[in-house]
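Q: How do we represent a protein-ligand complex in a form that can be generated token by token?
A: Start from the inputs.
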Amino acid sequence: MPELPELEVLRENLENRLKDRVLRELRIRKPYIQKTPQPDDLFPQKVTAVSRRGKYIIIDAERNRFIIHLMLSGRMKLRSSSDPVLKSTAAVFVFCDSFLQLTEEARLKRMSLWIVVSDVKVDDIKPLGPEPLSPDFTPERFSSIISTSRQRLKSFLVNQRNMAGIGNAYADEICWEAGLSPFRQASKLTGEEIERVYAAIGKVLREGISQIRRAAGDSLDIGEKRGFMKVHRRKDEPCPRCGKPIAWVSTTSRNTYYCPGCQTGGKVLKDGRRSRFLK
Ligand SMILES: [Zn+2]
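Then emit the structure tokens for the protein with zinc ion bound:
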């Protein structure tokens, strides 16, 4: 699933392509995608910006916002008016000489589109925690959120109510960067450990953005080009910090990659589906 770094690069590229274009029509090809009714006076209106909140991409037009969640495998592509519309297309934003096509290949169709008036925020649809790269996400604010959490570190990081935009892959990288077990109890981290996690969040997400930007260029086909990751999906490869093989543990909700050498004090964690006592 695309996370904050992929979606931020998609936002940049989408804004470069769509800003000042006039939206003429919206064709919904798969009704499941549409979460709100289509207002009457929707067209024409000019795209003024493309923004992002957590894992949501927002196409801002003069009167309305189009809030999109790509979920697991939603993709966007800008095509010229003469191109054919693909079968897997869920929605088409029609401009003068081009159209933006939203497709979803996954079996489970979960991509979502909300059409709202301009002052409606994503948080009105789904409450989200702060943006981890925004200036108001200070160490003090982070510390107050994490120190009251009852979750384990990785679950804390991927919970969108704590902060928005981090998912399974970047959470593994953040735990590794901080040198901490993904299964540490968040509220029991020391002040120094909390500082390490805070620094790791900024570093991992910023590095992710610059790597993804380099790999994607100006394309809207961002995919998940994550060859730069240190532990995520790197089972048995040597840890870039201590050389020990990267391990993998499965819990009911997700797979977690970590280094037993520098994150869990040499301890190899048991399969979480069988052990309720991961520490
Ligand atoms: Zn290591």
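The chain is about 25% helix and 20% strand. Helices lie at 4-18, 122-125, 139-146, 153-158, 168-178, 191-216.
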